[in-house]
Amino acid sequence: MTTTLVNKNTPRKARPPNPKRGIRTRIVAWAQGPTLARDITVVLAIKIALLMALKYAFFNHPQAEHMSMSPAAVAQALFAVPASPPSRGAQHAQH
């Protein structure tokens, strides 16, 4: 049985940046191989595209162009508490 000792404190040779490496080469290198950063970027781009499509499809324009309500009327419709109908018959607390 052989044991190999590796000194992890020895400095590694840093690869100097290649100034001739163009943006196209960098994109091709980024697209090759399974990387977590690439996968997250692709998923986020797809999500943003879908959210923007939903926004433009459903929330950009009103359903009927001729209909308009004042902000006070909208607030009244959204925040008004409907009155509950009066109950008939015996209450549970009266039993």
Question: If you had to describe this structure to a student in words, what would you say it looks like?
Answer:
There is one protein chain. By secondary structure, the chain is mainly alpha-helical. It has a domain at 34-60. Helices cover 44% and strands 0% of the residues. It is built from 3 helices and no strands. It has helices at residues 23-31, 36-59, 71-79. The model has no long low-confidence stretch (mean pLDDT 76).
Written as H for each helix and E for each strand, in order along the chain, the element string is HHH
Q: For the CA atoms, what is the radius of gyration?
A: 32 Å
Q: How would you classify the helix and strand content by structural class?
A: mainly alpha
Helix percentage range: 40-55%
Tally of individual helices: 3
State which percent range the strand residues make up: under 5%
Largest sheet: none
Mean pLDDT: 76
From the N-terminal CA to the C-terminal CA, the straight-line distance is 86 Å
Kindly state the number of beta strands.
0
Low-confidence stretches: none
Coarse morphology:
elongated
